[in-house]
């Protein structure tokens, strides 16, 4: 059934509203949320594969041997998986909890209050929305979100009142972590760290915080929270609440359930790392599943180069050294996002920038 067959009022609802409504009586999932893609029907995802755990504190405070080992481990994780758990990151449990609660409080505002932040232009610095609509696709996803640009200019919603202070601190701390991780990633590729920071203008890089809400879903076997996609950024640092293991990553053709490691952050490598490394490091394809029982919230911190004036392309030094030709053309982030938004399948974008 296409979106146009659903009652109009339903299409304007957030999934939070639909979930609250289903608790009070309506127990079936509106058909626009049915995912007919193979994602839902295919083989059982694997649960017992383990991804690497990286002690990020050793990058700063470890012995030279410990540091080199961590860099090797990061390189291997980026090459073989495109994701790893980050521990000893220095963000206190209380700050992690406060950030989760601040997003949760935002999603619990009245629909009227949240509407103030609902924008059609996705470049708005504070943007609340529901689902993820891909051009040309009618299907919707069981997810509400709040996306806030926090760097180089810090933005925040006015409500809840403590969002500003908490997100400011959380953004600072996560920025320190991803800068450390990006340096390690460049080192693992044997690339000049200061050259990379300058050429990507990392000092004025764009950092966003995205809170994702997946409320209980009346028919979770039919819906997806987020469809398979890779992130259009350098890296994503993901924090998850204790809800359930809702995140799955595609690894060697199989969906793997990411087991929640309390207090850790999950680092996912994004499309820009795949481009810069000329395909050696993969941007990981992942998706979010939903549950009928509990609410899941995730908070993603994403970092990208500035939107317009920086063109990223496979690192020339990497190509020279390995005597390889470039597989991707250079592109600005703005152009990349425009391309990404036109794609029906979120996965196929990398093919369209291959030379
Ligand atoms: O909620 C999750 O676990 C995944 C979120 C995600 O993929 C994203 O925000 O890009
Ligand atoms: Fe993602």
TrEMBL record:
This is Fe2OG dioxygenase domain-containing protein. InterPro entries: DIOX_N, IPNS-like_FE2OG_OXY, IPNS-like_sf, Oxoglu/Fe-dep_dioxygenase_dom, Plant_2OG-oxidoreductases. The keyword Nucleotidyltransferase does not apply. Keywords: Iron, Metal-binding, Oxidoreductase. The keyword Metal-binding applies. One of its GO terms (molecular function) is oxidoreductase activity. It comes from Dendrobium nobile. Transmembrane segments: none annotated. Belongs to the iron/ascorbate-dependent oxidoreductase family. The lineage of its organism: Eukaryota, Viridiplantae, Streptophyta, Embryophyta, Tracheophyta.
């Amino acid at each position: 059934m296409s979106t146009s067959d659903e009652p109009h009022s339903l299409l304007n609802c957030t999934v939070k509203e639909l979930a609250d409504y289903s608790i009070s009586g309506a127990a079936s999932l509106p058909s626009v949320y049915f995912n007919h893609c193979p994602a839902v029907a295919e083989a059982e995802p694997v649960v017992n594969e383990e991804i690497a755990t990286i002690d990020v504190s050793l990058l700063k405070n470890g012995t030279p041997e410990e540091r080199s080992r961590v860099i090797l481990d990061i390189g291997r994780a980026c090459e073989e998986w495109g994701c790893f758990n980050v521990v000893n990151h220095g963000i206190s449990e209380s700050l992690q909890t406060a950030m989760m609660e601040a997003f949760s409080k935002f999603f619990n505002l009245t629909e009227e209050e949240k509407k103030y932040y609902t924008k059609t232009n996705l470049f708005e610095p504070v943007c609340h929305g529901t689902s993820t609509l891909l051009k040309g696709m009618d299907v919707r996803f069981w997810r509400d979100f709040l996306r806030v640009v926090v760097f180089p200019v810090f933005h925040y919603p006015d409500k809840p009142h403590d969002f500003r202070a908490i997100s400011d601190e959380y953004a600072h701390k996560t920025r320190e972590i991803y800068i450390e991780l990006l340096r390690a990633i460049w080192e693992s590729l044997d690339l000049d760290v200061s050259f990379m920071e300058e050429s990507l203008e990392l000092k004025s890089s764009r950092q966003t915080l995205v809170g994702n809400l997946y409320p209980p879903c009346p028919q979770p076997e039919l819906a997806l929270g987020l469809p398979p996609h890779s992130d259009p950024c350098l890296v994503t640092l993901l924090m998850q609440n204790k809800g359930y293991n809702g995140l799955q990553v595609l690894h060697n053709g199989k969906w793997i359930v990411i087991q929640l490691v309390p207090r850790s952050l999950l680092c996912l490598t994004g499309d820009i790392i795949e481009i810069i490394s000329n395909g050696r490091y993969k941007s990981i394809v992942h998706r979010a599943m939903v549950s009928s029982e509990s609410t899941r919230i995730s908070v993603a911190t994403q970092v990208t180069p500035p939107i317009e004036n920086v063109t990223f392309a496979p690192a020339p030094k990497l190509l020279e050294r390995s005597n390889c030709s470039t597989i991707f053309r250079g592109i600005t982030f703005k152009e990349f996002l425009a391309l990404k938004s036109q794609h029906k399948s979120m996965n196929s974008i990398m093919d369209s920038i291959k030379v």
